[in-house]
């Protein structure tokens, strides 16, 4: 049985080698199809991996409560002072920490735009006041110096950690550790000593979270120092006049004890915010929900890309079927001679199927090589991120073999069903 199959394979290879150019052009469709599938899957997987990684940076066990300016009905202290009061408060923080048993940590942050100076260099950046846990909680690594500590907060020290972009603008050719920056406040300037610089960090999912997650152009200061130096009222100059806002806390990052408890904890927090914030000036966001939605979206995106690339394989399969049908017509007399010498229908069918599989398998292997090379060119030459999962080449190759089998079945069946006598009469 094995010797018969080997004989059929040798006949198929001999037939294909007799028409090398035609075989190469026929295989080209499969090569391009497989390469397209590999590249499309690699691009889709890279996009999926990056989106999921950024969401996972925020933690699957975390819930974000964010202060947002209400569109109408905001509380003002008086018409004369015109102070806009909204958002999370210290009372909210105490309630969250004391009344929800599944909450293991609740860390407040506050942010406000400021002009930052170092000698003659200045930068418009965000001042973000945080607790010492914030950097680790958001996977922000310190590249130089150190992060903020509990002692900094207890002593209300004027110390800061610069984001990578801030340090690059203010200290383009110097080590900023130990140097002083000036944060501009209305009517005063406040000096802060630089104790650390972070690695570059920017989350593309910030719009989904209703939060600015550009952590490059920022200055991190201790949370307690922020309230001691800048107060609870933020004075902003806008449209030719000063606007006063009172925002105690910009964001509370809540850490839940276990992932299964995230959904019900979020429901409790939403109920609590609805009760104490009827103006809807607090938004509750669950990164775990966004993570699940992102997985589904990226999976669909990858499937669509693979389907588009799969069209090339189908076109290649149609090309194989077309050539094999033409080959059946060319070799009708040869088929008649083989049948007259004792070859059975299944032998004829096997030979044509083997030729088709050689074309599709050979094209599939070449396509894998071209696809992998193309992803390297995209990544290194054009800075397009790609990620080849182990299953992607296997799927592309298996699909090429399947297309070859389907494309070769009809020509093989047609060749096997030729009448030997009529085939011998064919010129």
Estimated helix fraction: 40-55%
Mean pLDDT: 85
Number of strands: 14
Helix segment tally: 13
Overall structural domain count: 2
What does this structure look like?
The protein is of the alpha+beta class and 427 residues long. The protein folds into 2 domains: 2-54 and 294-425, no CATH class; 62-257, no CATH class. Helices cover 53% and strands 21% of the residues. The chain is built from 13 helices and 14 strands. The strands form 2 sheets. Strands 4-5-10-7-9-8 form a 6-stranded mixed barrel. It has a 4-stranded mixed sheet with strand order 2-3-12-11, with no helix packed on it. Strand 11 and strand 12 form a beta hairpin. Helix 2 crosses helix 11 (345-382) and helix 11 (345-382) packs antiparallel against helix 12. It is elongated and about 105 Å long. The two termini are 33 Å apart.
Write the layout of secondary structure elements.
Layout: H1 2-17, H2 20-57, E1 62-67, E2 75-76, E3 83-85, H3 90-99, E4 103-118, E5 121-130, H4 134-137, E6 142-145, H5 150-154, E7 159-162, H6 164-170, E8 180-185, E9 188-198, E10 218-222, H7 223-230, E11 233-238, E12 241-246, E13 251-256, H8 262-276, E14 282-285, H9 287-330, H10 332-340, H11 345-382, H12 391-416, H13 420-425
Parallel strand pairs: 3-12, 5-10, 7-9
Antiparallel strand pairs: 1-13, 1-14, 2-3, 4-5, 4-8, 4-13, 6-9, 7-10, 8-9, 11-12
Helix pairs in contact: 1-11, 2-9, 2-11, 2-12, 9-11, 9-12, 11-12
